[in-house]
Amino acid sequence: xxxxxxxxxxxxxxxxxxxxxxxxxxxxxxxxxxxxxxxxxxxxxxxxxxxxxxxxxxxxxxxxxxxxxxxxxxxxxxxxxxxxxxxxxxxxxxxxxxxxxxxxxxxxxxxxxxxxxxxxxxxxxxxxxxxxxxxxxxxxxxxxxxxxxxxxxxxxxxxxxxxxxxxxxxxxxxxxxxxxxxxxxxxxxxxxxxxxxxxxxxxxxxxxxxxxxxxxxxxxxxxxxxxxxxxxxxxxxxxxxxxxxxxxxxxxxxxxxxxxxxxxxxxxxxxxxxxxxxxxxxxxxxxxxxxxxxxxxxxxxxxxxxxxxxxxxxxxxxxxxxxxxxxxxxxxxxxxxxxxxxxxxxxxxxxxxxxxxxxxxxxxxxxxxxxxxxxxxxxxxxxxxxxxxxxxxxxxxxxxxxxxxxxxxxxxxxxxxxxxxxxxxxxxxxxxxxxxxxxxxxxxxxxxxxxxxxxxxxxxxxxxxxxxxxxxxxxxxxxxxxxxxxxxxxxxxxxxxxxxxxxxxxxxxxxxxxxxxxxxxxxxxxxxxxxxxxxxxxxxxxxxxxxxxxxxxxxxxxxxxxxxxxxxxxxxxxxxxxxxxxxxxxxxxxxxxxxxxxxxxxxxxxxxxxxxxxxxxxxxxxxxxxxxxxxxxxxxxxxxxxxxxxxxxxxxxxxxxxxxxxxxxxxxxxxxxxxxxxxxxxxxxxxxxxxxxxxxxxxxxxxxxxxxxxxxxxxxxxxxxxxxxxxxxxxxxxxxxxxxxxxxxxxxxxxxxxxxxxxxxxxxxxxxxxxxxxxxxxxxxxxxxxxxxxxxxxxxxxxxxxxxxxxxxxxxxxxxxxxxxxxxxxxxxxxxxxxxxxxxxxxxxxxxxxxxxxxxxxxxxxxxxxxxxxxxxxxxxxxxxxxxxxxxxxxxxxxxxxxxxxxxxxxxxxxxxxxxxxxxxxxxxxxxxxxxxxxxxxxxxxxxxxxxxxxxxxxxxxxxxxxxxxxxxxxxxxxxxxxxxxxxxxxxxxxxxxxxxxxxxxxxxxxxxxxxxxxxxxxxxxxxxxxxxxxxxxxxxxxxxxxxxxxxxxxxxxxxxxxxxxxxxxx
Length: 1067
Description:
Helices cover 36% and strands 20% of the residues. By secondary structure, it is α/β, with parallel strands linked by helices. The strands form 7 sheets. Strands 14-13-10-11-12-15-16 form a 7-stranded antiparallel sheet, sandwiched between helices. A 7-stranded antiparallel sheet has the order 31-30-27-28-29-32-33, sandwiched between helices. Strands 17-18-21-20-19-22 form a 6-stranded mixed sheet, sandwiched between helices. Helix 5 (120-127) packs across helix 6 and helix 14 (433-442) crosses helix 16.
């Protein structure tokens, strides 16, 4: 049936900030849905709090609301926009939960808004564990033995019936948050209590353990005429017990028999019918017992999921776009497949003639003491996908795409015998287990022995074993004698030039030259949804080693953009945002745009974002092969974060035409000594700094610089291995550890400007003129990484004089560095003096936020300057004016890592960000806090404990405000004495090391509602760790910076005055 004519406007709910368990795959699906519905002539309204996404750009929907994805805000949007329908299936669990809240509270009925894409009943049946179990029993599909519990007593009744080990899953949570596997009573109590707390319905599902079973997923799309297609089958290499988001996954499924595959297909479609999903995509997860073939369904998501993004990229089938059109009445047979240029309908099931492998990306190094064992609670922050003709090829391409310094199966174990601790490393799921399996084969263990330890299917293990055996053959080769057939055969298995060079004890360039001399080059195949059965008009390509090449480059003028690879803390979706805008800008200017990236979650890897997409790892070899094939007239490396910048030198030496700011200018900004000379020659101030190459030199130079110091390795992103140290002993400890991180590059020592205001400035330069995008004033003082600090546009406290001087210095710096494109600078202002902290002549993570706050697309403007279109020619004249306040707030994953200290410092830890807007700073700030999920108590008991430098008039005013708001103050000895001296009442409580009763006891008992705790120095931070850790576990709001707590209390008056603001009305 054709599209519905009875609805004119549709509200789409986004997923909010990037968090572990809900990444930027929902930016990709939401953007696709908005565009699809606008194409059909509907008025589209979007609510999403994330400024870093393409989805919240003003031209993506008719009305954009960068507001908290919570029912209270959404109700205000509904009242204002009066949509006919709401589509909740594109915003992950957040969107789904918010839509259910709106339905349950009668808001959808009140405003006569229809839920499309999924009904309340179908969502409830799929998400409510008990209803799902009953539904499956009705249609004869087996589920795991289980029981629902709402308290500890009910939980014990169930575990006594099912036995240990037992899996605990809280209802309605993201990425398995709060879940886990309990092997004994102690673990059981811990996970149950946490799960009950985290579930919005105070409900947990206790299931029989399926540990060791094989796990599969089916991506299914169904329409209202009961047309159903399986888009893709996905198999987890890791067995049950590891969250699917943390598993290595392979598509299509490799180890199912045809009978099992057909049964899984039939069951998937039967499940969608029973649940009632008839207008969109769903993900169904199964477990299969390898011993007897028993198949059970684990769960289904009645929405677009993380796996939907992977399945879309793996097959080329745009699940979100099709699901959005099905939601408005179309059927699959009425819709055309874009990839084949409309030659096939969407009801034509995708078939693929290649293998796709996804590897998760972890950042445990950001969270010291965090438990790095993989469980049913998701911990990865990103992922990489690779395509190859075989499993081996795609696996090895994915390994090098992860950017973890592994160019193949690196050896991590250097002993010569198999020990019990080594067997534990092989059997325990971890970020490095794949490499330990490689080592196990090197030590002579068999497929059968490793299968017994890991429960990984022998099919996968035998292919890994073959890679390890092939490595031994490579070791015995010489560069001069290696035969063409042998080199060709190992390239077909996915071996990189760099890995071959490591094994043959030579260098990458020598292998590359030899390979080219033997005329061994990659060819490119197309992702076409139909296994080359029909001609495709879309250039979505991957490399392999065969005879025929399908890339067919054009002779148009073209610009190639290097993407940012897998998401990680410090390099997230913001850089993908910049790459996408660069692609749009290039197309607008009449060039052909070419994208290279390997992240399946992003908009940049959508088949229609650029004219040509190469889904390839971002390594020198893989990038250079595309350059040789396409011969672009320019290459943009400045938008993808540190990933492409690391390739700059090699690409230049190979003759690649890099455009924009030169790699030498980037080096001038990042090389401490060169930059210091530049700043001094301009007569500007910098914190006193030195460079040290070893621990002895560091101690000597620290005396010159003076403590406290900010120490860090050179050339890092996201404040990697950055710390503040207060004495020689702390510096020695740091030097011993840091050299490992910095790849022998020196360590930088800067004098730490305590009590300074930190400022970010984003600008674009065309080489002659400089356009200032915005000045952002940080709320936390210097010392907290800029990515972890809230910040405001316009600045809320800087004088006009200071702002004028900042702009002047920014213009001079951009011109001195010969910037062409984007540039970001960080300044610190202490006692009216401006200090330059650093200048980065590349895209910064603040670019999307500045673009949303000002209405000026910085990345697009910058990309045009890089291809020679001046600011004047673009009509970019004045700096932005600010009609409203915009506040960016960070979002942290500490609830996933309860063993790690949630204190903020110079090393970045946030996974995402939100934005609040308002006519005043207070309104914008309080909205950013709400959007970040921070629950701010209106009254209750507050615990105060602050470091000596914070014992100021500002702190006293904060304490007075808290009392005025009816808070009762409890404080530690020093803080309590300070308050008493200034006639402010407080109760005294012990610090933990002073003995019981102490503050952690009170938090545990639920007697504390708010915590303000600032510290300095390693000892003090370590002593107060248990306070912050307990606050995370008990979900008590805490602040580790005085400035953030002051901003929150100052914004209290805006609680009841918050309005919703349409972004387009601001410009």
